[in-house]
């Protein structure tokens, strides 16, 4: 606990996202900063006035409470000097003093890691592309990283999970915070197939400033960042900027040149981002760096499209209307009944099996799992995607019914 408690103290004093490497060069360790006299801290010129105030007021007892909170919930605290703190993240300009983890963080330093980001109010085209790219990349052995928000983030996570891969969700709030209730089941699936990660202490609520702050972690954990859909003011462009500054690869998905919703993505391509049109575009650049990838097969994209029932990825998916708490699509070209029937016909694998067991009344996920003869984790993942596709509806207590 000794090292952890001083890292927690330093984080509380400096604030999340702060640069602390110069402090370590001056004081040696977080404990050295803690034990230094206030006059010495001030004379170092490395603290702001507010940080100096917090250095005098934050106690180790405050940090001990955080440690006990995390222990009670089974959350891991990973300080900067821990052996398993990711080197990828250590090497960015301002890494987090501490990471809080719910689940099992994959050993990202030895794995190909790809961040996939985009707007919350995603078009059907963007949702399908994100899902297919991440499904293909995860099948090929990559770890998918995103932010757990609605829209592209959710499609990215679910694509990785349904492919049997690993995924990491970097939160813009603390573990245990009441944020985005509509995506609670997806977060459970991510935890079961990877990890929820944040630098914010438990129960810290999301705020406007916390999301740009967490974006540097998304890019920092990644080898490359894929922007699927973004307007000129999208927060995804912040992640892309961080990626470029951190020396990561930046990818973008091409789309309409007359729709402002894609103007940010197209601008990235104009600025030199690499074009991505299939999963292999994301895997082939890393085959030499990560030899284990050569033992995995990258799914054929045309076959993936055929299995999904969408040979033309831009034709029908955008016709879906999303519920208010999930995604908003930009257009409707078919009636809801016709679109739903087409989506049901395109289901396969776990999605088809789970959908077949849904009824008109809400039932607990364990009941559905038993009838499907599938593990509850896979059923939850499938249900998350069915919700995205507006084929299932959830209620409190992990209950679902056919929509």
Protein model, in words:
- A nine-stranded mixed sheet has the order 1-2-6-5-4-3-7-8-9, sandwiched between helices. Strands 10-12-11 form a three-stranded antiparallel sheet.
- The chain folds into three domains: 1-73; 108-308, Rossmann fold; 317-402, Arc Repressor Mutant, subunit A.
- Helix 11 (210-220) packs across helix 12 (236-245).
- Residues 311-334 have low confidence and may be disordered.
- It starts with a helix and ends with a strand.
- The radius of gyration is 22 Å and the shape is globular.
- It has helices at residues 2-14, 21-27, 30-35, 38-44, 49-57, 60-73, 87-90, 124-139, 152-162, 184-192, 210-220, 236-245, 263-270, 280-283, 301-308, 336-346, 349-356, 365-372, 376-388, and strands spanning 76-79, 98-103, 113-117, 143-146, 167-170, 194-198, 224-227, 249-252, 274-275, 363-364, 392-395, 399-402.
- It is an alpha/beta fold and 403 residues long.
- It is built from 19 helices and twelve strands.
- Strand 4 (143-146), helix 9 (152-162) and strand 5 (167-170) form a beta-alpha-beta unit.
Task: Put the structure in a nutshell.
The chain has 19 helices and 12 strands. The chain is of the alpha/beta class. Residues 77-284 form the Smf/DprA SLOG domain.
Largest sheet: 9 strands, mixed
How many beta strands in the DSSP annotation?
Answer: 12
CA gyration radius, whole angstroms: 22 Å
CATH architecture of the largest domain: 3-Layer(aba) Sandwich
Beta-strand percentage range: 5-15%
And the CATH topology of the largest domain?
Rossmann fold
Main sheet strand line-up: 1-2-6-5-4-3-7-8-9
Oligomer type: single chain
Let me know the average pLDDT.
Answer: 88
Class of secondary structure makeup: alpha/beta
The CATH top-level class label of the largest domain: Alpha Beta
Low-pLDDT residue spans: 311-334
The percent range for helix content is 40-55%
Number of domains: 3
Q: Please, how many helices? A: 19
Distance between the termini: 49 Å
**Form type:** globular
């Amino acid at each position: 606990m000794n090292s952890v408690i001083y890292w927690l103290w330093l984080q509380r004093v400096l604030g999340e996202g702060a640069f602390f490497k110069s402090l370590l060069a001056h004081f040696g360790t977080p404990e050295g900063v803690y034990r230094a006299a206030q006059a010495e801290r001030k004379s170092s010129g490395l603290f702001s006035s507010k940080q100096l105030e917090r250095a005098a007021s934050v106690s180790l007892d405050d940090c001990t409470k955080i440690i006990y909170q995390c222990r009670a919930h089974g959350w891991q605290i990973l300080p900067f000097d821990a052996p398993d703190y990711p080197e990828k993240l250590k090497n960015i300009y301002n890494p987090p003093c501490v990471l809080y983890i719910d689940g099992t963080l994959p050993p990202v330093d030895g794995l190909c890691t790809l961040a996939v980001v985009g707007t919350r109010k995603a078009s059907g085209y963007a949702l399908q592309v994100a899902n297919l790219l991440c499904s293909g990349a995860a099948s090929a052995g990559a770890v998918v990283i995103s932010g757990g928000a609605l829209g592209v983030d959710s499609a990215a996570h679910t694509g990785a999970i349904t492919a049997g891969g690993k995924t990491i969700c970097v939160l813009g709030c603390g573990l245990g915070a009441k944020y985005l209730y509509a995506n609670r089941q997806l977060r459970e699936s991510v935890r079961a197939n990877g990890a929820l990660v944040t630098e914010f202490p438990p129960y810290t609520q999301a705020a406007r400033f916390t999301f740009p702050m967490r974006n540097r972690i998304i890019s920092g954990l990644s080898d490359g960042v894929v922007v699927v859909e973004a307007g000129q003011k999208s927060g995804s462009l912040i992640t892309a900027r961080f990626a470029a500054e951190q020396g990561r690869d930046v990818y973008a998905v091409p789309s309409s040149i007359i729709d402002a919703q894609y103007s940010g993505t197209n601008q990235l391509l104009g600025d030199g981002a690499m074009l991505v049109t299939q999963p292999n575009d994301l895997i082939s650049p890393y085959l030499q760096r990560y030899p284990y990838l050569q033992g995995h097969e990258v799914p054929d994209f045309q076959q993936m499209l055929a299995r999904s029932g969408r040979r033309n990825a831009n034709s029908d998916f955008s016709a879906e209307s999303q519920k208010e708490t999930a995604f908003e699509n930009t257009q409707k070209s078919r009636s809801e009944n016709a679109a739903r029937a087409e989506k049901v016909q395109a289901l396969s694998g776990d999605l088809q099996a789970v959908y077949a067991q849904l009824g008109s009344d809400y039932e607990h996920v364990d009941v559905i799992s038993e009838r499907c003869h599938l593990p509850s984790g896979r059923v939850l993942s499938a249900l998350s995607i069915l919700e995205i596709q507006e084929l299932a509806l959830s209620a409190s207590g992990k209950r679902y019914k056919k929509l």
